[in-house]
Amino acid sequence: GGRNIYPQYDHPLCADGAPMWEIEDEEDVKVYAAPMSHGIPCLGYVVDELPRPGRLRNEVVEPIVKRNVQALREAGFTVPMKAMAVLKNLPPGNAFTFPDGTVVQQEDAVEPPQEGRKVVIGGDTADCRALRNLAQNADLVIHEATNCYLQGVDKDTDVREVTRDAVMHGHSTPQIAGDFARSVNAKRLVLNHFSARY
Prior knowledge:
By secondary structure, this protein is an alpha/beta fold.
């Protein structure tokens, strides 16, 4: 079975009065959508991966656990290596004291959390502004660019005319895509367009 997903107009990440939809809200990822400016109804998406827990530093912890195997068994750890899981799940700022007196701080046993990634997929559009707030600091923006002006090649037109024509048909140029990517502080921009015509 499916579920109904309703637009939100008052969400703090809405831009310029446009609605947004929260498509998915899982433990490790959120997916949002917002309307794009195109000749037919079209959505753009933001896939926002949440931070991931840091990796256990086995090279630090394993020798201490091995040195304390027998004492850990006597302390109730039927599988002494499970003490490593206890360390991995310690809240920041806490410590674990081994039977031999060795104290291991959480930050010494576990690497810092890894930042999640953010991918923006604009789809067919002349304007991605409705995604602007959702797309801030994106790792990757995938933005269509149907037409472009090539100086020295396009003799019968100019950049303004190519831009006007693209926007009039609900599409973008590389300059429009670049301006959007810059406005959201994107790390990378990939240009694309799928069409039988172009």
